[in-house]
Design goal:
Number of helices: 19
Number of strands: 4
Number of domains: 2
Order of helices and strands: HHHHHHHHHEHEHHHHEEHHHHH
Oligomer: single chain
Shape: globular
Helix content: 55-70%
Bound molecules: iron/sulfur cluster
Strand content: under 5%
Structural class: mainly alpha
Strand order of the largest sheet: 1-2
C-alpha cells in the first residue's frame, strides 16, 4: 500500500479521520431511536384509519419495520456491517457504557457458540408473542429490552468495547452471514504489516498506537467482513489496513476462518427455519384450522382455562380495545408453529445438503457441509427481507399506494437469490475440489450444487404459499 490509495481506500481513510462526525451521527441515531421507541408507546393506540403521515405511532411502525430493518439487511449485503459501526444505537450505547463500566473480562459462558442462534430464536419468538410489528408497546419491550441488556453488558464487561455486539446481540449471527456477501471489506495486508513492524524496529517508521476496535477483532488477521463492524477506525493502521473492493461473496468461496456449526444453525435453522415460521403463522389458514380443532377439543373436554387465560400485554398480546387478545392456546400454538415448524423446515433444508455431502465422495466431513451451506445465504437473507417488507407493503397499501407489482418483484428476487446460491455452490465445490476435499471431479460438483438447489425448495415452498398460495 505504498502506492496512492484508490477511491474506496480513501473513503475508509476519511471514516478514520472523521471520528467526530461519525460519533455525531451515532448519537443523533440514538436520539431518533429513543424518540420513535418510547413516545409512541406512551400515546393512545391509533384507530384503524390512522396513516403513516397522520399518526406518530404508525409512522414509527413504518420507520422501524418498513424502512429500518429491511434496509439494514440490504446495507449488510452492499456495504458489510457499516450499520453496526456507524449507525446502530445499541452498539453506540453499549460501547459508551463500557467506557465507564466495570471493565470485566468476557466470561466463558458468554463465549458459547450457541448464543447467536438462541438469541435470534428468543427475540423472534418474543417479538411474535408481543406483536412487535403491530404495537408500540411490543416494539418497546422487544427492542428496548435488548437495548437495556446491551447497556448492562457494557456496564459490566469490556473497556470501551462492544462485548454485547460480539457475543450476545440477537442479530449478530445474521449480520455476520450477510456481511460476507458484501463487495467491500476492511482487510489487512499481512506483508505490509510485517514490513511496517520491521521499519519500526529499524527506526524508519514510528510506532502507531493500536486502534480501538470495538468488536475486539484480531487486526493482524482481518480478512472477513463477518465480524468487522466496518467502523473505519483501523484504516491506515501500520499502512497495512484499508477498505477494499472484492467480488461479492468471494469470502464464501474461500472462508478466511473455518465455517462452524454456529453459522450453519443461524442460516439453516434460523433464517431458513425460525424466521419463516415467524412470518408465516399469521398468514396461514392451516394455523387457523389447527387452532379451531384444538379449541373444539378443549371445549368438549371442559378445559376452558387455555381459552380464557390471558397474560399482561408485554408478555402476550392483549389489546381488548382492538379485539386483539392472545389466549394461552394462541401463545402456545404460535410458539409451536415457530419452533417446531422452523425446526422441520431446517431439517428439510438439511436433508439434501447431508445427502449431497455424502454423495460428493471424499471425506464427508461436517466442515465441508457447513462450508457448502453458505451458498444458501442469499436465499436466507432475502427471505427475512421479504418477510419484513411485507409490513412495508401493508402500511403503504393502507396509505392507498398501488403495489400490484409487488408479487412479480418477489418472484424475480427469489429466482435471483436461488441462482446466486447455485453459482456460489458451484464455486464452493470447485474450491473443495481444488483443495482435495472431493472424491470426484465435475460430477461431485454437480451433486453438491444439485443438493443446494434441493435445499432451496422448502423455503421457496413456504414463500410460495405465503404470497401466492394461501
Ligand atoms: S476491524 Fe475493528 S476497527 Fe477495523 S473497521 Fe472493523 S470493526 Fe472497525
Amino acid at each position: 500500500m505504498t502506492s496512492r490509495p484508490n477511491r474506496i481506500a480513501r473513503f475508509g481513510q476519511a471514516m478514520q479521520q472523521r471520528r467526530g462526525l461519525i460519533q455525531l451521527i451515532q448519537w443523533v441515531v440514538v436520539g431518533l431511536y429513543a424518540f420513535l421507541l418510547v413516545v409512541p408507546a406512551l400515546l393512545p393506540l391509533p384507530d384503524y384509519q390512522a396513516h403513516i403521515l397522520t399518526s406518530l405511532t404508525v409512522f414509527a411502525e413504518f420507520v422501524f419495520w418498513g424502512l429500518w430493518w429491511p434496509f439494514v439487511l440490504i446495507s449488510m449485503v452492499l456495504m458489510g456491517r457499516v450499520w453496526c459501526g456507524v449507525f446502530c444505537p445499541e452498539g453506540t450505547l453499549t460501547e459508551a457504557a463500557s467506557r465507564i463500566g466495570l471493565g470485566r473480562p468476557i466470561p466463558d459462558w458468554m463465549r458459547w457458540g450457541g448464543w447467536p442462534f438462541v438469541a435470534f430464536l428468543g427475540t423472534t419468538l418474543y417479538g411474535q408473542l408481543a406483536s412487535v410489528y403491530q404495537y408500540p408497546l411490543g416494539a418497546l419491550v422487544v427492542l428496548g429490552g435488548s437495548t437495556v441488556a446491551a447497556i448492562i453488558v457494557g456496564l459490566i464487561y469490556g473497556k470501551g468495547t462492544r462485548v454485547w455486539c460480539r457475543q450476545l446481540c440477537p442479530v449478530n449471527g445474521v449480520f455476520n452471514l450477510l456481511a460476507r456477501l458484501s463487495p467491500t471489506h476492511f482487510r489487512t495486508d499481512q506483508a505490509q504489516w510485517a514490513a511496517h513492524n520491521q521499519a519500526v524496529r529499524n527506526g524508519d517508521a514510528v510506532r502507531m498506537s493500536a486502534p480501538d476496535c470495538a468488536p475486539l477483532i484480531p487486526l493482524k488477521q482481518l480478512d472477513s467482513a463477518g465480524d468487522c463492524h466496518a467502523c473505519g477506525r483501523c484504516s491506515g493502521y501500520k499502512d497495512a489496513m484499508q477498505l477494499e473492493w472484492r467480488a461479492p461473496g468471494a469470502e464464501l468461496i474461500e472462508p478466511p476462518q473455518p465455517v462452524r456449526f454456529t453459522h450453519y444453525s443461524v442460516l439453516v435453522f434460523g433464517l431458513l427455519g425460525i424466521a419463516i415460521g415467524a412470518f408465516s403463522w399469521s398468514a396461514s389458514p392451516w394455523f387457523v384450522q389447527i387452532k379451531q380443532l384444538l379449541a373444539f377439543w378443549l371445549i368438549e373436554h371442559d378445559l376452558m382455562w387455555p381459552l380464557t387465560t390471558t397474560l399482561p400485554t408485554w408478555i402476550l398480546t392483549n389489546y381488548p380495545e382492538h379485539n386483539d387478545v392472545f389466549n394461552l392456546l394462541d401463545g402456545s400454538l404460535i410458539t409451536l408453529w415457530i419452533v417446531v415448524g422452523g425446526g422441520l423446515l431446517g431439517a428439510a433444508t438439511s436433508l439434501p445438503l447431508l445427502l449431497g455431502n455424502w454423495l460428493m465422495g471424499g471425506k464427508a466431513t461436517l466442515s465441508r457441509l457447513w462450508h457448502l451451506s453458505l451458498s444458501l445465504i442469499p436465499l436466507g437473507g432475502l427471505g427475512v427481507f421479504l418477510g419484513l417488507s411485507a409490513t412495508t407493503m401493508t402500511l403503504l397499501r393502507g396509505d392507498g399506494i398501488n403495489l400490484t407489482w409487488a408479487n412479480d418483484l418477489r418472484a424475480t428476487l427469489l429466482v435471483l437469490a436461488c441462482l446466486w446460491g447455485l453459482r456460489l455452490a458451484w464455486r464452493i465445490t470447485g474450491e473443495q475440489l481444488n483443495s482435495g476435499q472431493l472424491g470426484g471431479g465435475s460430477t461431485s460438483r454437480l451433486i453438491g450444487t444439485t443438493s443446494v438447489a434441493m435445499a432451496c425448495l422448502p423455503a421457496i415452498g413456504v414463500w410460495y404459499l405465503m404470497f401466492w398460495g394461501w
